[in-house]
Design brief:
Length: 180
C-alpha cells in the first residue's frame, strides 16, 4: 500500500513540476513572431465627391455624389461612389436618377488628372401636363476625362464614350471633384 502512495505522490509531483515549467513557456507565445506594423489603409483613403444645385423660375436640379478613393501611390487612385440627381421643370417633366460609379484616377504630374469612370444609373422620368408619359430605364456611361488639379480640387471635362442619343443630350460632361 505504501508503494502505491509513493507512486501516486511522485506522479502528482511530476505533473505539477511539468505544468510549472511549461506554463511560462506557453504564456510567452511563439518566440520568433514578427511584429505586424499597424495597418495604414485609412491613411490612403480620401472622401469627397460632388454636389450641385441649380434653381430658376420653375426649374430645379439637385445633385449629390459622395465617393471615396484609395490612393495606391501619388500617381494612381481607385474609387467608388453613389449618385443621386433630381431634376424638375414645372408643368413639363421630372426625373429622379440614382446609381453607383467607379473611377480610376491617374496623375502623371501633380497638376494634371486623367480619369476613367464607369457609371450605372437608374432613371425614373415622367412628363407632366398634356402627356402623362413616363419611363424607367438603366443608363450606363463610360466617361474618360482630364482636368486641372490644385490641392484637393480638380476641374475638368469628360467625354461619355457610351453616349446614347436617345437619352444623353451631350457627350461632354464638365466636372469639379474634391477629395479630402
Amino acid at each position: 500500500m505504501k508503494k502505491k502512495h509513493h507512486i501516486s505522490f511522485f506522479r502528482s509531483l511530476l505533473v505539477l513540476l511539468f505544468l510549472l515549467i511549461l506554463n511560462p513557456l506557453i504564456a510567452q507565445g511563439p518566440l520568433n513572431t514578427p511584429q505586424q506594423p499597424p495597418s495604414d489603409f485609412w491613411n490612403h483613403v480620401q472622401l469627397g465627391g460632388g454636389i450641385g444645385l441649380n434653381f430658376s423660375s420653375g426649374y430645379s436640379d439637385v445633385f449629390i455624389a459622395p465617393s471615396a478613393i484609395y490612393n495606391f501611390n501619388p500617381t494612381v487612385a481607385l474609387g467608388a461612389g453613389l449618385n443621386l440627381n433630381y431634376v424638375a421643370s414645372k408643368n413639363y417633366y421630372s426625373s429622379f436618377v440614382y446609381g453607383i460609379s467607379t473611377i480610376v484616377l491617374v496623375n502623371p504630374i501633380p497638376q494634371i488628372q486623367l480619369s476613367v469612370g464607369l457609371n450605372q444609373s437608374r432613371v425614373n422620368y415622367q412628363e407632366e401636363g398634356f402627356s402623362n408619359y413616363s419611363e424607367d430605364y438603366w443608363d450606363t456611361s463610360l466617361i474618360v476625362g482630364a482636368g486641372y488639379r490644385t490641392g484637393n480640387v480638380t476641374i475638368g471635362v469628360g467625354y461619355n464614350l457610351l453616349q446614347d442619343d436617345r437619352y444623353d443630350a451631350e457627350p461632354f460632361v464638365p466636372f469639379v471633384r474634391a477629395y479630402f
